[in-house]
Amino acid sequence: MSTCALPSTGEPGASASMRRGACPSLAAPMQTGDGLLVRLRPDDGSLTIPKVIALAAAAKTFGNGIIEITARGNLQLRGLSAATVPGLAQAIGDAEIMIAEGLAIEVPPLAGIDPAETADPRPIAAGLREALQARRPMLRLAPKLSVVIDGGGRFGLNAVVADIRLRALSTPDGSGWLLSLGGTAAKGSIIGTFVGNAVVPALITILEKLASLGTTARGRDLDPAEIRALCRCEALSERPAVLSSASIPGSHDLGDAGVILGLGLAFAQVEASVLEAFLHQAQELGATAIRLAPGHAFFVLGLGHETAAVAQSLAAAHGFRIVEDDPRNAIATCAGSKGCASAWMETKGMAQSLVEMAPELLDGSLTVHLSGCAKGCARPRPSELTLVGASSGYGLVVNGAANGLPSAYTDENGVKSALARLGRLVRQNKDAGESAQSCLTRLGAARVSAAFEQE
Q1: CA contacts within 13 A on the Cβ side of 453
Q2: Is 181:203 a contact under the CB 8 Å cutoff?
C-alpha cells in the first residue's frame, strides 16, 4: 500500500497497460479515446469526505473531470495526459489517499462495520498484503488476478467473480473460511475450509502455484484436488448456501454503525464538479467518509436517520441512483465514443434514450448492455439484449455478448424508433405480473429481432 505511484518514464503507448487485459494504474495509464485513463484502488479507510473532494478537484485539474466507479468498485479518472499524470499522483499523495498496488485483494465495502458479517476480513487481507510485500523474489502474476476475502454481511461479494475466494462460515468453534477457485461464490470450485493462522500461508501457496504456471494463469486453471492437498484444507460434503446481497442504493440502518446511505452512479460516471458539490452538502449534514462498492456505487458514512433522508434527496437532485428500482440500474454501458477511440456508440446518450423510449424493458428483470464496440468491456458475459456500435450503425444481439453475431440492425436515424418498438413489444405482449425478461423469452429471439429491425 502506498500513497501514490509516479508514472513510468517513456511513451505511454509502450506501457503494458496499453494491452487489453492489463490494468491502467498511475504507473501505467491506458490510452483511450479521451486521453489517458487511470484506475485506482483506494484503501477504504482513507476516503474521508475532504480527501474525496480533493480527488475530485484533481480530476478536474489534471483530467477531463470525469470520474467512474467500476463494476468491481474501483475508481477511474479520465482525460489525463502524459504531462498531467505526475501532477495527479502528487495530488493523491498530498491528500494522503492510500492506493493499493499489486494484486487486487478485495473485501466487502462495509467490512468491519457491517453488524451482519460473520467475520472481519480485513486482518486477513492486511496479512496477505504484508506477506506478498515481504516475499523475495516478488511473485509475477496475471495482471487481473483477484482475491476476494468476504466476511459476509448484508453487502458481501458473492456475486463478484474472483480467482481465489475466501468466504467466512459460522462453525461450532466460531468462524472458519471456505476456499474456492474461479467464478462467483455460487459457481466457483469449492476446495475446503480453514481456521486460524493457516489462511494466509495457504493463500501464498496458491499464488506461488499460479506464478509457477506463468503470468496468464488464473484461478480456473488450477486443479482443485491438487490445491486441496497442497493447502491441507478440510473438504466439504456439500456446497454451503449462497445468499444474495442487499441492494446498495437506499438508506440502510446498521444499528450501532449508524445509518449508511447507498448511492449509485448513473451509467457508471459522474462529473467531478457534481460529486464535489454533493459531498460538500453531505459533509454539512455530518457525513464523514465514503466506501466504494461494486455495481458502480458507493456508501456515505456518518449520517443520521433525518440527515440521511436529506442527503438522499440532494443525491437524487444531482443525478445519482438512490433506489433499487431506478430504471438506470438495468443498463450496463462502457465509456462509449466520448471516452474510447474504439467505440462507435455514444453509450451514455443512448442509455438515456433507452430510459425515455423503452422503459418497459427496465423493470430490473434483465440487463440491457450498450457496448460501443464488439469488445464488450462493460459486460463480457451474455445479456438478454446487447446493442453494439459498429461503423455501419447498431447491431442487436439477443441472449448473447457484444462479440456475438447480431440478429438485427439499424442506423443512426432509426435507433430510437427501434428501441421504442422493443419497449412497445413488451408493453403489448406482457401478461399480468410477467417480467420483461420472461416476456421476451416467451416471444423468442426471432420476434424480438424482427421488432427491432421493422421499418
Answers
A1: 15
A2: no
Contact between residue 231 and residue 180 where contact means Cβ atoms under 8 Å apart: no
Do residues 12 and 6 touch, judged by C-beta distance below 8 A? no
CA distance 72 to 163: 14
Q: Which of 301, 364, 230, 359 is nearest to 52 (CA)?
A: 301
CA 333, CA 356: separation in Å to the nearest integer? 16
Per-residue pLDDT of the chain (455 residues; tens, 9 = 90+): 444 444 433 333 333 333 344 567 788 888 887 889 999 998 766 699 999 999 999 999 999 999 999 989 999 999 999 999 999 999 999 999 998 888 999 999 999 999 999 999 999 999 999 999 999 999 999 999 999 999 999 999 999 999 999 999 987 666 789 999 999 999 999 999 987 788 999 999 999 999 999 999 999 999 999 999 999 888 887 888 888 888 999 999 998 888 999 999 998 899 999 999 999 999 999 999 999 999 999 999 999 999 999 999 999 999 999 998 899 989 999 889 887 888 999 999 999 999 999 999 999 999 999 999 999 988 888 999 999 999 989 999 999 999 999 999 999 999 999 999 999 999 999 999 999 999 999 999 999 999 999 86
Cis, bond preceding 108 (omega within 30 deg of 0)? no
Nearest residue to 264 via CA among 276, 247, 286, 281: 247
Enumerate residues 6+ apart whose C-beta is below 8 A from 111.
Answer: 44, 117, 120, 121, 122, 151, 153
Give how far Cα 407 sits from Cα of 334, 358, 392, 393, 451, Å: 21, 19, 15, 13, 11
Q: All 3 cell numbers of residue 24?
A: 491502467
Cβ pair 396, 379 in contact under 8 A: no
Parallel, antiparallel, or unpaired: how do β-strands 146-150 and 104-106 relate?
A: parallel
Indicate the pairing of strand 269-271 with strand 174-181: unpaired
Q: Which residues on adjacent β-strands are paired with residue 292?
A: 298
Cell 474504439 found at: 342
Q: Give the β-pairing of 289-293 and 250-253.
A: unpaired
8 Å CB contact between 75 and 44:
no
Q: Which residue has the cell 495509464?
A: 29
Cell numbers at 290, concatenated? 465514503
The whole model's pTM is what?
A: 0.86
Task: Check: CB of residue 69 under 8 Å from CB of residue 268.
Answer: yes
CA 197 – CA 309 distance, rounded (Å)? 43
User: CB 343: neighbour CB atoms within 10 A?
Assistant: 21
